[in-house]
Amino acid sequence: MTRARVIRIASTCVLTVILSFGHFVYSWWCSIHFYEWSGGIHKLTSGWTQFGGASRAWAIPLELPGAVTLRLCQLHTQSECNGTFLGQLSMVLLLLASVITAYFISSVLVALVTRQQISWGRFYWRAIVILLGLAWVPVREDFAPVSQYTVMF
Question: Is 82 helix (H, G, I), strand (E, B) or coil?
Answer without folding.
Answer: coil
